[in-house]
Amino acid sequence: MNSAPPLSRPLRKAVLPVAGFGTRVLPATKAIPKEMLPVFDRPAIQYVVDEALDAGIEHIVFVTGRNKGAIEDYFDRAYELEVTLRDKGKTAQLKEIEAPIRPAGSMSFVRQQAALGLGHAVWCARDIVGDEPFAVMLPDMLMMAQPSCLAQMANAYAKTGGNIIAVEPTDTPELYGVITPESRDGRMIKMKGMVEKPKREQAPSNLFISGRYILQPEIFDLLASQAPGAGGEIQLTDAMARLMQTQSFHALEYEGVTYDCGDKLGYLRANAAFALANAEYGARAAATLRDELTKRS
What we know:
33% of the residues lie in helices and 24% in strands.
């Protein structure tokens, strides 16, 4: 019988796997980390970090790879630029570049030295996470939600404990991993399984796993012994399926919209959506997009 770990263990840490090559958006990512590509007015990774902070996360662990130094630099001070902006009285821009900087010791960076899959990337963070629950946030997936997707999940976790996955309805379940539901209470769904890219007619639900997880630390022992799965990589979902045999798993159909920046059209859609939602530029962004569409009609 599945049982939830004690509810007293708070959610304090988040793991962000950022070691991928970004092959679906080449050539833009040949020399620039895909996480640093701008989505309207800021790098994509900034939205994910803001979501984590909105959920009360205290420590963020980036699992990086070679040629990803720009991510670490982005969250560090840029003294020369700060001095220049301060001397020129550009206080608004100064505040913008200082905003991503977190207190010393609240971010860690660990290397994934080989591309062995998402499960392996999460496992690389084991010593920093330690024996406590943690979130996994895929930086390709940007969530537009208020409160943030992870904040909604954290609120659900405080009530149920265990392991929680964010899900969202889709018309194309064959393109994603989807959950197998057991029972439902509002937006919370007790799970009994997951299926990766099922045939449409065999999909157990239309709820796809959208890139946010809250997991218990016991997953690390399972990842350490996890055999390679799809694509010859260590898959996080395979270890989660094993953990589901002993711990409770729920899916939260969160209130919001997911934008997949992992391919070129998804990245374009995210840029348009976040531009339109921007409080300062949204109206002008809408007019600009309309003008461009009119020219091509």
